[in-house]
Hints:
The complex is a heterodimer of chains A (362) and B (336). By secondary structure, chain A is α/β, with parallel strands linked by helices.
Amino acid sequence: MxxxxxxxxxxIAQGVIRRIFEVSTRPVHLMxxxxxxxxxxxxxxxxxxxxxxxxxxxxxxxxxxxxxNQDIDxxxxxxxxxxxxxxxxxxxxxxxxxxxxxxxxxxxxRSIGIxxxxxxxxxxxxxxxxxxxVFLAVGFETTSPAIAMTxxxxxxxxxxxxxxxxxxxxxxxxxxxxxxxxxxxIHGVILPxxxxxxxxxxxxxxxxxxxxxxxxxxxxxxxxxxxxxxxxVKQIEQGQALVEIQYTRAVREQGNPTALSKMxxxxxxxxxxxxxxxxxxxxxxxxxxxxxxMDARRxxxxxxxxxxxxxxxxxxxxxxxxxxxxxxxxxxxxxxEHPVGPCMVSIEGACFTYYKFHANAD
Amino acid sequence: xxxxxxxxxxxxxxxxxxxxxxxxxxxRFSNPFLEPLDDSARIANQDGSLAFTTDAYVIHPxxxxxxxxxxxxxxxxxNDLSMIGAVPSYLSxxxxxxxxxxxNRLERIISSARDAAEEASVQIxxxxxKVVEHGAADQLFITTSGIxxxxxxxxxxxxxAKPGDAVLLSGFLGDHEIAVLSQxxxxxxxxxxxxxxxxxxxxxxxxxxxxxxxxxxxxxxxGGLATTLNEIASGSGVGVVLEEERIPVRESVRGTCELLGxxxxxxANEGKLVAICPPHEADKVLQAMRAHPLGQHAEIxxxxxxxxxxxxxxxxxxxxxxVVDMLTGAQYPRIC
Lengths: 362, 336
């Protein structure tokens, strides 16, 4: 398969690994920001092929995982209203809120549906004129343009029964907040290729300028990951801190201007609450004036006070401070059938990924 | 909060489905025929063994490229009998129909069931229909039961895999699940792909002819190859090592999986089987499989080991190594 097979070539992979061993002399901590990267490192068995002193830590790049309990509880409360049909992406169904989950609410008979593309919401809204269609909108800059398109289309078609519970997140402000924290010990950053396809390089330049951390915008195939690790290690060994693009076949310097302008037409950056990271300025998306009627947070509903499971380390795992096996709940009380925290739910979540692929985590 | 409820994930074929069977059903009906939890029960008498199985079929949409619920209901039960080495003979066919269901569609489905039965050389000898009020069922549910005879000397079971044995797969993974997915509301993509839904009894007969001491056969349906091999590894107390480069997956299925973030090892199949056989028989069995239309793309995909008991591992394309766990929850497409 083109654009896949050439990036899974065993001989080339072995060659890059050899180069990594040649250049790497000291312990380094690299953060893979994106959950898809975490999965890819495990799925192809790359972690065990790297020098032992290269430590890979998962970051906050799993959209399901960073959604705070407050938003899940609000979605659950909304779904309990008879006039609401709540829609979301599949993985959100199983995420535990404070006392319930959307999956459990669905089994109780609430109207809750899974969509694969936000544009499906337009159809749902037309098919169910008697209902308020509420979309629990999670995701990063990869997902936001499609959500913005849907909002614009609904506005254009004068659809009045479609609402968005905005829990979308922006990656650069979260990375800034992370690196400002003293707990976080990261020497280099593996940046998410898909987010950068939309944003371009510039929004990440602060990593180099303000924090003196090398970063590489990285694709998702094994050779992409290996090349990125090599580029980062080389920079660290040479005392450099540049933001480089490894994923050149998809990422342009200026990103995707069309996608950016759609997002900008609909949303303003706003403060957002992240699980594990707290409130971060300009890291979320608020509706601009003309679309504020679609804000689901305006629908009146009583929400239970939110609470986190006391032992759950999802917060620290999302900050790349801890790894899943360090959590006392991991594999004991918390496993994919009975997840305590969201990182054990999402297919991109660090705990789920460790659980699924990591032989030595027992 | 309230009492525990059945979730959709209880029907996914993964860990929750297993827990449900082991916690609710097995303890209540416990008997020596049920307990091996093979694809069919084996009831012995002087002339060999009778195999008996039953399965319920619900699928959305009812018609999909390469099949429909009628064909599926016949093939699924024929395959469950075949997987313990039985020659399928007689099937029952029961339908729960929602009020208002199109008679024309019903006829198409039943004709398709008849065609599948002819293909598999089995007869439908009994059946039932019930109609429920609109809204009390989703269009049409089918249950088929089947009996067949296990020839003397054949003893296939998920408990019989031994270290050193070869692991064979009869062809491309995931065609069924991706073909069905491509028709679902919200997806509707062009996959140029058909479900592999087919009766496997003639393929099994050919394999047993060349290798009567096959250890184990399984059809990797819900939960996919990964779940099936974990069941075998667990049942036989052995490890299984797979070679990623040997596992046949069609380009269109691989492409869809890459796009959606799905893993072909967990996709459902309805016309594929996994075979475990002694190492010295592997090439013979492989040739027999490849000589059959349903096994043309068969491969030896791995081996059974003493190390890592009850665990399935994979040598990846680029030379890495990782665990292949059972399906947990349902596979949802990734968000970004």
